[in-house]
């Protein structure tokens, strides 16, 4: 093994064991979603604030980015930022569905997307797409320097590969015994539970 490979191996080991490490999602804590869009791509970072070593620490749960499509290149800055939000909500639906979360953006128009009275064709479609998150989402405007994570992701997006190799993964969640106890008790209180059991017995 050459010295160059040894140094590369050490660099990888160091990157995997030092901050910022990816945090496990915790649906009891509100998420923070940083978004940014530019002429090159869309970028977003999903964060949580967890207690680590007895102090509140904000860290990433996942990063995501993609290139701008040719037809999207005609969008203005406001439309691009709204597109980024809708795209990221679709990609992170597993994390955000039913959860409280805060969207951090440097574009004021994103803040008005939920309640826009006269949206154009694109905005109307996006407005409808995010209605399911109404009541769970708070959109906050902050200067771009506050969220360099998403800003960097939107400018250094991965190139589109000529061939696509599917990546399969599994997400593991530790569910305590209390969950199953609550599940059993709720079924006992369900008045039509006996009908459900009879129907299941038939099959």
From TrEMBL:
Q: Which organism is it from?
A: Austropuccinia psidii MF-1
Q: Which UniProt keywords apply?
A: Endonuclease, Hydrolase, Nuclease, Nucleotidyltransferase, RNA-directed DNA polymerase, Transferase
Q: Which GO terms describe its molecular function?
A: endonuclease activity; hydrolase activity; RNA-directed DNA polymerase activity
**Keyword Nucleotidyltransferase on entry:** yes
> Which residues does the UniProt record annotate as the domain Reverse transcriptase RNase H-like?
27-133
Per the record's keyword annotation, is Transferase included, yes or no?
yes
Q: Check the record and name the PANTHER family matching this protein.
A: PROTEIN CBG26694, PROTEIN NYNRIN-LIKE
- Identify this protein by name: Reverse transcriptase RNase H-like domain-containing protein
| Residue ranges of the TM segments | none
Q: In this record, what's one Pfam family?
A: RT_RNaseH
